[in-house]
Amino acid sequence: MMNLQTVPVAIPYAAQRNGRFSFTASQVKTIKQRWDETYASLPQIQQRAINNALQAAIAEFQRRNPTIKGTKDLKKKLAKAWNVKMSQVGIDDTMQRQLNIAWVLTLLNMFVSTKVIPIHVYQPDENVEFYLAWDGQHTLVLLWLICTQIFGEKPEDFDIPVNVYSSHDKAEMRSSFIDLNTEHGKRMLDLFDKMEQMIYGARVDGNKNPLWVEVSNKQTVIENHGLFMTSKKFGDDHMPGAISRVQEINKLKLEPLTWLCTYLVAVGAQNRPVEEKEMVMMSYFFERCYKAQLTLTQKCLHDIAGVLIGHFGADFSPTSTFWTRAGNAYRNWHNQHGMYGTPHFHKEPLHGYPFLVEQLTKDLPKYRFPSSSTNSNFVPDATDLV
């Protein structure tokens, strides 16, 4: 009789990344865990770059700070606040942006003790001498690197300055975190960071802010389609299902976002990253459909995908067939209308959308598609379509 063995099912990368939003409570990590998990998630080429950058940063720290020989010397130079052992401070995964190791190494390279702001913490249990950082994660990791990697000392022997807040209102702290990280001199939250915090705020804190709830609902649409939002700074924008251009997600309403994700799945985006111009072009297209109060059925979306795959491989990258055909059509139109000057074709919705709509209208006459709202008068000739 044949012995049957259970074959482990690999979890898609998008599902792994989206899994962090499934938390409904705080996820406490030590500083070392935060560093190790972030480092381990990076591609090997980035890990090697970080190893080299860390050694260079350590050498630069020692050059710039010759009088600091250990954490006792460093403590004398740091701000006087409530001092606690570094080992008594943890990081709440859901209350912080994702750790940016490159930024930590930048801080290490240009370390100045007077720029070290006390870590913002709260005490989840007043009977336990343990604190959770809700702001200052990168400073905390910076001090941990100095303690462990430069001086070879233990976190439990290093007193660090913290500002202890009595509030336990995570929604309030999260809002303050977003506000505080828009000031000069701090690593400002980018759009991805803000959207991530809004998702956590709605799901973990139960924040009813309509904008935050909407962003959380958008994340639900994206994860239900096997895609995930990311940023180039995390080094995984090449992974299957990756959407690294989130500006369009931020602008779209839920319905056109759902159309976009359905389309992306139909053209194979679960097995490849979503290209930037692909996001720009197709987001613009579905936004125009939404504003025209059209209803795009599943069948319509798959028909659109079929046309774009068949003619252009659903490829909108700068060197793709789509832009070659659209560019030729634009130049022919420019010449036929006797316009002055050299034709300046833009690989953007300005000139790409009119070509896209005319091509879809030709191949899918049973559907209605909205005309462009751009300032261009470009209308490709039928002979220039595929």
Run of helices and strands: HEHHHEEHEEHEHHHEEHHHHHH
The best one-word shape is elongated
Structural class: alpha/beta
Specify the biggest β-sheet: 6 strands, mixed
Q: What is the overall pLDDT average?
A: 89
**Termini distance?**
58 Å
Radius of gyration: 26 Å
Percent helix range: 40-55%
Helical segment count = 15
Spans where pLDDT lies below 50 across 5 or more residues: 1-7
Number of DSSP E strands: 8
User: Order of strands side by side in the largest beta sheet?
Assistant: 1-3-5-4-6-2
Approximately how much beta-strand content do the residues carry? 5-15%
**Structural domains: how many:** 2
**Oligomeric description of these chains:** single chain
Question: What's the layout of helices and strands?
Answer:
Elements: H1 13-18, E1 28-29, H2 31-40, H3 44-64, H4 71-77, E2 82-85, E3 89-92, H5 101-109, E4 119-122, E5 131-135, H6 137-150, E6 159-165, H7 170-180, H8 191-205, H9 210-224, E7 228-229, E8 242-243, H10 247-251, H11 254-266, H12 276-291, H13 298-312, H14 321-336, H15 349-363
Parallel strand pairs: 3-5, 4-6, 7-8
Antiparallel strand pairs: 1-3, 2-6, 4-5
Helix pairs in contact: 3-5, 5-6, 7-8, 8-9, 9-11, 11-12, 11-13, 12-15, 14-15
Notes on the protein architecture:
This protein is α/β, with parallel strands linked by helices. The protein folds into two domains: about 15-165, no CATH class; about 250-385, no CATH class. Helix content is about 50%, strand content about 10%. The protein is built from 15 helices and eight strands. Strands 1-3-5-4-6-2 form a six-stranded mixed beta sheet. Helix 5 packs across helix 6, helix 7 packs antiparallel against helix 8 and helix 11 crosses helix 12 (about 275-290). The chain is elongated and about 75 Å long.
